Amino acid sequence: MKATPSDQLLVLDLVALDRALERAEAARSHPPQAARVKELVALRNEQGRALVEKTNLRDDVRVELKRVESDIEVARARQQRDRDRLGTTAIARDARALETEIASLAARIDKLETRELELMEDLQVAEADLADQQRQLEETTDEGRRLSAEGKTAVESAATEVASLSSDRAEITAKIPEALLTDYQRIAKRTAGAGLLHRGTCGGCTMTLSPNDLAQIARTADDEIVHCPECSCILVRTAESGL
């Protein structure tokens, strides 16, 4: 196959464009923020479940505290009624019964008040834990929103680059002879496609060619297509090829 040296150099431009296109396509399909956003989604779900649990725990403490406070009010009201009755009764047996009940209510109130203090402390801890969990969830949400926005911008930028590179590629491929382009595209499916032969080294596979291979290439006409004996890519020769 024959192609002018200038056409062969165009293939190197095509290689550079194809590599840039691969990077741009990868950036469009897999923006750098995507992995972290995926982690944050899982973390946010976990934090959301923890928030529900902590909210339920706080609510349970509130309900228990309200019940204890109600029991204290009932016991105090009954204790006051007994005291009022004690002040008006003239029957010794009734007085002793009232005094016993007043003492029993005092013990119950003391026990309930102790429990009330415990629950108030539990409520403070539960509310602090809930607030901390809410803060963590908000931080995760904010980071996720920020990275999602950055990822969207990155995808849009990569898409613009893909469009620009595709346009440049179309211009270059239009200048390359069809046979040479077909040969390059066939080889590019499994190797670099083409590479510059620089000081005896293939730019496609970075292998240094043997003296015999280089001697054979040196005897080949400039407009004859040469392939790397190691990777089969098109070897583009210049004055710095070491021939």
From TrEMBL:
Signal peptide region: none
Keyword Ribosomal protein: no
Annotated ranges, domain C4-type zinc ribbon: 201-235
All copies of domain CT398-like coiled coil hairpin, residue ranges: 14-191
This protein's UniProt keywords: Coiled coil
Coiled coil regions in record: 58-150
InterPro entries: CT398_CC_hairpin, Oxidative_Scav/Glycosyltrans, Zf-RING_7
Keyword Iron: no
Regions crossing the membrane: none
Family matches, as PANTHER family: PHOSPHOLIPASE C-BETA-2-RELATED (PTHR39082), SCAVENGER RECEPTOR CLASS A MEMBER 3 (PTHR39082:SF1)
Protein name as catalogued: DNA-binding protein
Organism for this UniProt entry: Microbacterium faecale
